[in-house]
Each structure stands twice: as C-alpha cells, then as structure tokens.
Amino acid sequence: MGRLRPIEPLTEPLTDGVVTVRFRCESDLLAIGAASHDPETRRWLDDTPMDEAARSTSMFRVEEAWRTGQATPLVIADATTEEPTGIINLQFRNDDVATIAYSVFPAHRGRGIAPRAVQLVAKWAFSELGLSQILLEAAAENTASVRVAEKCQFQRIDSRASSAEGQHTMIVFACTKN
To answer: pTM of the predicted model, to two decimals?
Structure first.
C-alpha cells in the first residue's frame, strides 16, 4: 500500500552520540554493496545482493523511495567517524504504520548498534512522521534480531511462515506510539 504523501529526506542526522542515522549518500554504496553479499546477511534477507548495475541506480531508487513516500532508506554510521556501519529503513504500509528493517555490517556486529539505530528511527518516526505503530519482523531463528526487538521494547503480536526460500517462522513485533 504505502504512504499517501512524500517524505522529506533527513537534513539533520539522528544521533545518540554513539550511533548516527543519516541520509544515504554515494560514498556509502561500496560498503552497502559489500555487506549485501555477506553470508549471514544473505541467510535472513531475500533481497538480491547489490551488483554494479544496482549500485549505479541506487541513489535514484533511494530518492524515489523518499519522494513517493514508500520508504526511508537510511545509513547507520559511527557518530565519531561517520563510517557506515549498517542500513535501516522504514517501509510504509499506510500513513500511520510502517515496518522497520535493518542490517549491521559484519565488522560492526555485536556492539549494540542495531538497538540504538532502531530507537533513534522509532522516536523520529513517531514524533516527526506521525506514525502510530512500527512493526518489526524477525525470523525466530535470528536470535540477534529477536533480541533487538525485545531490547527496544517491541511486543510480540503474531507469527507466520516466511515467503523466503528456506522457510523461517517469522515473529512479528510491534511498537506503538505512547
């Protein structure tokens, strides 16, 4: 379905002093592309790994997602160095509900980056985008993502079989605006 109106891209990054969430830029694409081929990432995502053709159109697709109100493709970066450490995205189901998805790059896993980024984006989405609910879907076997949802105080609301190859049981979590 998607949002009914465009979203203004972030002009100011979201930060907690450790993690920064910001608009994607051309210089992020090599790191994003490399991470898209990581076996652990491939295990949980059904997206096609980024090749040269996808990289060449990536920024157009990022801008189009914001312009059409379908999604908010963002980069997670180290707050000090600005080095990209992952990606995070809201995909809109309608004007008040979105699904959040994220991936931390292999060299940066296990440092609490994902929960910090999810909390930053959720706070922004509730206060600035007017969302009333954010959903997070994680494979039951993906203990890292399940821990992120729980750490960020998302509540389990459902489970279902995934449509991805390998058939995982997906847990659906929700966080509602207070």
So the answer is: 0.89
